[in-house]
């Protein structure tokens, strides 16, 4: 499934708007479209943060095809596999 994601991020006081087209797995999209798109949006925001040098970033708004998923994206927490723990 192809979707258009829009983000408004505040990077240390500088607001920026970006949008892009992304593919979401069809089977994930059928289960829960908002969450499936939120995961893709979260990954894209992490990429944007790396591009800005990991500066303090506030997620102001995230939407896909005019569906607001800001809160879902804010609640996503990356999961580390237990085998990769540093101790």
UniProtKB/TrEMBL annotation:
<protein>
    <submittedName>
        <fullName>Uncharacterized protein</fullName>
    </submittedName>
</protein>
């Amino acid at each position: 499934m192809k979707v258009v994601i829009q983000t408004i991020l505040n990077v240390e006081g500088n607001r920026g708007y970006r949008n892009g087209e992304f593919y979401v797995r069809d089977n994930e999209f059928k289960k829960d479209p908002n969450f499936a798109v939120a995961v893709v949006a979260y990954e894209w925001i992490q990429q944007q943060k790396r591009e800005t040098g990991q500066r303090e970033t506030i997620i102001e708004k995230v939407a896909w095809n005019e569906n607001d998923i800001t809160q879902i994206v804010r609640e996503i927490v990356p999961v580390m596999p237990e085998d990769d723990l540093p101790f």
